[in-house]
Structure formats: structure tokens, C-alpha cells
Amino acid sequence: MNNLKEAIKKADxxxxxxxxxxxxxxxxxxxxxxxxxxxxxxxxxYMLSHTCLTREPEKFYQFVMENMYYPDAVPxxxxxKMAEMESKKNVTIITQNIDGxxxxxxxxxxxxxxxxxxxxxxxxxxxxxxxxxxxxxDIHSECSGIVxxxxxxxxxxxxxxxxxxxxxAMRQADLIVIVGTSFRVSPFCNLTxxxxxxxxxxxxxxxRISLPYPFExxxxxxxxxxxxx
Length: 229
What we know:
Elements: H1 2-10, E1 13-18, H2 44-47, H3 50-55, H4 57-67, H5 77-85, E2 90-95, H6 101-104, E3 110-112, E4 115-122, E5 128-129, H7 131-134, E6 147-151, H8 160-172, E7 175-179, E8 200-205, E9 216-219, H9 222-227
Parallel strand pairs: 1-2, 1-7, 2-3, 7-8, 8-9
Antiparallel strand pairs: 4-5, 4-6
């Protein structure tokens, strides 16, 4: 932990790569752990697929409403510590999470690699729709089109803008910190292939992760680690 604290102190350009483990302390379950969102489900990938949205929009909407939205969740210490660093460092957060908690904590440079549940739009007319309206109905009051959250579903591609912003941040970073993710989901886990080769890389996760290049592993609860930074 002291090594990470010292590395943050020395770094000018920091990139945090965050996953579901960062939001678990805020009461949002991860996906694949024993108590995660997918536990006991037979076909969760289908429920969150472009096919399901297209063929069975009612089923998709019901699943999303029952399992994905946590509007009362608040940022935890990990989110707030990352946001606080922006006053002294150039910090970019590239997150797999779609819950908007990094923004709620005050972080300004956030790349939502898989989109955000709180950006919604009508598939028929293209108009942006407030998430508060989507939480009440997936039918657009203006044109009766189907509203959807602007998140990357199974079978959909990562937006080019998110990839471009991520690669630019990786090239500039002198410190990369992977937090709360097993770092196995592609293409998110491939971002470090494009890192500045002089950047130090740390990983903070409850379970050890494996990377094909030198890095420093902190196998611990991220809340405990960030409490000491």
C-alpha cells in the first residue's frame, strides 16, 4: 500500500481502470461472484443483449428495472478519493461500471467504457430521455418509441469515442491503477496493451489477477487500501 501511495504522490498523469468491485461497497452487486447479479440465472447474457431488447423489449425492460438500477446508491470512499485527487493531479477514470457513481462523487474526466444507465434515448426519434422518465416507462411520451439506456449490450460494439479517449489517456499516463476488477473482459482488459511503457502499473483487487507484464499486486479490499492513500 505504501508503494501505491508513494507512486500516486510522484505521478502527474494517473489512469484508474475500475470495475464492479468499486461499486460493491455502495450496495451495487457485481456480476459473476457468488452473490452477484448473475447468480442462479440461466441466461443473464441474453437478458442484457441487443437481441432481447429488439425481440422482447418488455422482458428486457423488466430485467433492467429489477436488477440494474440503484438510484439511491451513493459514492463510497474509493469514488471520493479518486475525485479528490483531481485537485492535484491529471486523473482519468476509465470504468466498466454503468452506475454513474464516479460522476456523483465529483470526478470530471470519466470515460464510461460500457456507457451509462443514466443516459437514455428513444430508439425511434433519437431524442435524449431523462433517466427518471425511463424508470417510469420505456415508452417515449413524445413519439411512442422504445426508450433504452445508452449502455453497451451483449452483441454491441464499444463506442469509438470511448476507445479513442481511453487510448489517449493510456498513452499519457505515468501511473495506471486497476481497481475492483478481475480484468478479464475484452476489450477493456486490452487497454493496458496501449499504455505508456514507462508507466507503473498497480492492481488493487480482493483476488489476485494475472497480467502479461510487470505490475504490483495489492490483494486487498479496495476500500481499506484507499482509506490509507
